[in-house]
Amino acid sequence: MTGFLFELSFYLVAPVWLLMIFAPHRRLTARVAASPLTVLPVLLVHLAMAIPVFPELWAAVSSPDIDVFRDLTARANGAGAVWAQVLAWDLLLGQWMYREARRLGVHPLVMGPLLVLTILLSPIGLMVFLVVRAARPAHRSPAGGEALVRS
Fold first, then answer.
1. pLDDT band at residue 137, thresholds of 50, 70 and 90?
2. What is the C-alpha separation between 13 and 11, in angstroms, rounded?
3. 79 Cβ partners below 8 Å, 6+ apart?
């Protein structure tokens, strides 16, 4: 069952990633990417895998220690719970990047590969995106005035 949940966690987030990468201008994509609820299904999978190892999980997060964390991830449910959590956070990050790129007018041919990089190696994808974001000139607002784009 744990192996199934591990695989399911990826398939639950994949449709959102596919929309953002391959259909970035669709109204459906914008609506989906605007919702934090997209991570709810994978968080439920996280919960299903975390409950059986909750004491170990709590020990690993309440008093961080590399050996305790290693012991947690050596368990199938522990590794699965951490994986589902990573997928949920990566998806939220990807959704923010997608929305921010749309706001700044970053071309989808730039963002597609960046989103793929974020799926695979989110810290690197985020760093590259932050560089792209910082390099963007101020974007004009729809009313024609200069909009503040850096926060």
1. confident
2. 6
3. 6, 72, 73
